[in-house]
Amino acid sequence: MTVLTSGSKGNATVIASAETRVLVDAGLSCRELMKRMAMVKEDPSALDAILITHEHQDHVAGLSVLARRLRIPVYFSEPTHRAWVRMMTPSTTMTYAKWLEHVQREKEARAAQDALETAEARLLTDLESSGAKPCDASGPIQIAAVSAEAEEEDAPETVSRRDPASLPAVEYFQPGTNFSIGDLMITPFTTPHDAADPCGFVFESASESIRMAIATDLGYMPPNVKRALERIDVLLLESNHDLEMLKDGPYPWAVKQRVLSRVGHLSNHATAEFLARDYDGSAAYIVLGHLSETNNVPELALLSAEEAIRERGRLLGNRIMLAQQSAPIAPICL
Ligand SMILES: [Zn+2]
Ligand SMILES: [Zn+2]
Questions:
Q1: I want to staple 28 with a disulfide (CB 3.0 to 4.6 A). Which of 10, 108, 267, 270 is the partner?
Q2: 59 CA to middle of ligand 2, Å?
């Protein structure tokens, strides 16, 4: 697990097994995400997919540009994808069904274009082998024109100008139902948060029997999340705010209410309560994440979690770390 960034201003984490690498959330610009991957020697072109927990800006800011740049599929739940598309194209009058149709048509057009290019390439080879100069005939001149157009089609700026929600491929999952990417088995679980269909993920590598989990953006710890977080070796867990700092802090009252609500974020206190009472103690590493820069202090979050663990003597082997907003943390390898 490599946390590239974590906090209210952006979230992105690389999870990798022996054969598969996925990026969970893309909450910084594409350029910044690339920069952070370079800092921890993660090769972006080795990523197999991007998984999205929910459509809030701090989880999707760089999504479309990054996915198009890397040409990799994006996994969403359907309601999250729908909400994201709506967010990306706020002025559209298209219904979701119409939009899906439009995407299908684009896909068919691309396939037709690919077939045409293959045929043209073959024709060109035939012409060359027959000794004809490509520029002599009317056919090859047409080829040049079509190729130039095809190149323009591939340029990310052109695609985004046409449809900002266009992605190389979209795959749907359903929270509660597991699915696989390469040798990674992934179980999304529903989280209580004010988004269309928010979730966390448990990752299990078949070959190494190691389990990692990401559980951030949740208003409280419901039973299904507690169950999902059993037998986890590396756990990225939210510790968003200090209750006193939030109450006394600068946020408007309505925003304070939202953060504190059952569809908001986990406080240091709630996280400590989970660690002290319900957590099974199986993680070698607990990474505290999604810290608020305004309403939390890293030392407070760490102290609160450490105190909760200290009360349970047998958990002293658990290492608690802090994820950061401003820089990636060193990869955690098991
Ligand atoms: Zn959120
Ligand atoms: Zn968030």
A1: 10
A2: 6
Distance (Å) from CA 80 to ligand 2 centroid? 14
Centre of ligand 2 from the C-alpha of residue 92, in Å = 26
CATH number (3.90.550.10, 3.40.50.2300, 3.60.15.10, 3.40.50.150) of 2-89+168-322 reads: 3.60.15.10
240 C-alpha to ligand 2 centroid (Å): 9
Gap between the Cα atoms of 166 and 316, Å rounded: 48
Ligand 1 centre from 154 Cα, in Å? 32
Tracing tokens 């959330």 back to the chain, one arrives at 25
Q: Tell me the domain boundaries of the chain.
A: 2-89+168-322, 96-162
Which ligand is closest to the CA of 56, given by its number?
Answer: 1
Q: What is the pLDDT of residues 276-299, one digit of tens each?
A: 999 999 999 999 999 999 999 999
pLDDT at residue 144, rounded to an integer: 32
